[in-house]
């Protein structure tokens, strides 16, 4: 009967910590509805891979030999070997996004670039704090609040903190409604938050919508070749949507495909959350730097809008700049809600959506730029 208690004897305090982390993520997913499609499978997976002699990861069993664990197999095939899972998710994201508000207000492109400031600030900070360059770059991308990009960049660079980076990225995506309002109020006045903007969209032709994803892919590929897979899959999903002849595929990509890949990605990334690699001081440091990156991305976009207002007659509500991060559509909703709270007659949603979808492009291009830059140094 001793074999029945063998697993209990092998439990370490680090394993217990990970059980607590797993339960916390499940609680946030169910009770608080923070990114439940990802945090719930990540939380359950964190428990799954930290059970002693877990059959979910590769183990050598007495009398049986090497046993292949499904979670480790999914990680090696879907993330480590090919980055297939996060890339396939971009097809679904692209199929969901309407770039119309961005195309009708092209200046919103600027906010998608300005709101990436926190990424490079965090990269520099992590380097100063002693992280290797590839790990620092992977940590910095957390600021985009874009989970798939964070996972992809950290995996391509071979960072040993993939699990912590994934948890931080998706946690801050979920905390957008809490963190962003505080960051916005920190650098704006009430008068600035009350600036009215009148939405007068110009018509966007079908040809423009079709050529846009093709053009973005070509430009991004020439400027940052390492971003081709990131941007390309995102734009391919959008091209399916805008073609108008693949209605069933658009529906499948934006629903069934995106939901299935999200589910698999959540439980697969938990392989990187094994206690021996996750429970350490570096993980706490990564969470802290990731928060700084996220806050500075928000502030970077807001401050950029304030600078533009110094040179333009038609003032921009600086809160629009905060929507330049990649957390679509949560960030746009936050800006809209804050705008209505300051002035019930001020509707900022379409401007914020334009900046927000620009941020989606900006984050994946920033990821590609970082991969290209690090490639030059390593």
From TrEMBL:
Q: Where in the cell is it found?
A: Cell membrane
Per its UniProt entry, what is the enzyme's top EC class, as one word? lyase
Segments crossing the lipid bilayer: 12-30, 37-57, 77-97, 109-131, 161-187, 208-237, 285-304, 316-336, 348-374
Which BP terms in the Gene Ontology apply to this protein?
sodium ion transport
The cross-references to Pfam families, in alphabetical order and at most eight, read:
OAD_beta
- What's a GO cellular component annotated to this UniProt protein? plasma membrane
Report membrane topology.
Answer: Multi-pass membrane protein
Superkingdom of source: Bacteria
InterPro entries given in the database record: OadB_MmdB
EC code: 4.1.1.3
Q: Which UniProt keywords apply?
A: Cell membrane, Ion transport, Lyase, Membrane, Sodium, Sodium transport, Translocase, Transmembrane, Transmembrane helix, Transport
Q: Which GO terms describe its molecular function?
A: lyase activity
Know the name of this protein?
Oxaloacetate decarboxylase
State the species of origin.
Answer: Peptoniphilus indolicus ATCC 29427
């Amino acid at each position: 009967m001793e074999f029945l208690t063998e697993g209990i004897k092998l439990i370490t305090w680090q394993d217990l910590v990970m059980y607590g982390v797993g339960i916390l993520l499940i609680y946030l997913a169910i009770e608080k509805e923070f990114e439940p499609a990802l945090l719930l499978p990540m939380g359950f997976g964190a428990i799954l891979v930290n059970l002693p002699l877990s059959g979910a990861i590769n183990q050598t069993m007495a009398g049986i030999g090497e046993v292949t664990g499904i979670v480790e197999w999914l990680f090696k095939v879907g993330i480590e070997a090919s980055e297939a899972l996060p890339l396939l998710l971009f097809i679904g994201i692209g199929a969901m996004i309407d770039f119309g508000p961005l195309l009708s207000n092209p200046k919103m492109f600027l906010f998608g670039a300005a709101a990436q400031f926190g990424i490079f600030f965090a990269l520099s900070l992590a380097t100063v704090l002693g992280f290797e360059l590839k790990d620092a770059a992977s940590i910095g991308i957390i600021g985009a609040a874009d989970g798939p990009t964070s996972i992809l960049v950290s995996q391509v660079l071979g960072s040993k903190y993939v699990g912590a980076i994934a948890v931080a990225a998706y946690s801050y995506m979920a905390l957008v409604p809490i963190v962003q309002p505080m960051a916005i109020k920190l650098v704006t006045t009430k008068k600035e938050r009350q600036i009215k903007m009148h939405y007068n969209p110009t018509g966007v032709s079908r040809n423009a919508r079709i050529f846009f994803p093709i053009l973005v892919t070509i430009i991004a590929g020439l400027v940052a070749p390492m971003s081709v897979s990131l941007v390309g899959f995102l734009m391919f999903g959008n091209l399916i949507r805008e073609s108008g002849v693949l209605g069933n595929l658009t529906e499948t990509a934006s629903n069934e495909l995106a939901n299935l890949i999200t589910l698999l990605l959540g439980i697969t990334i938990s392989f990187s959350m094994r206690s021996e690699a996750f429970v350490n001081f570096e993980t706490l440091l990564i969470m802290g730097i990731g928060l700084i990156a996220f806050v500075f991305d928000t502030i970077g976009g807001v401050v950029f809008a304030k600078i533009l207002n110094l040179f333009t007659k038609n003032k921009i509500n600086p809160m629009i700049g905060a929507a330049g991060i990649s957390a679509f559509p949560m960030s746009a909703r936050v800006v809209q809600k804050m705008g209505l709270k300051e002035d019930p007659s001020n509707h900022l949603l379409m401007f914020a959506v334009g900046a927000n979808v620009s941020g989606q492009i900006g984050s994946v291009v920033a990821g590609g730029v970082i991969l290209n830059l690090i490639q030059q140094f390593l």
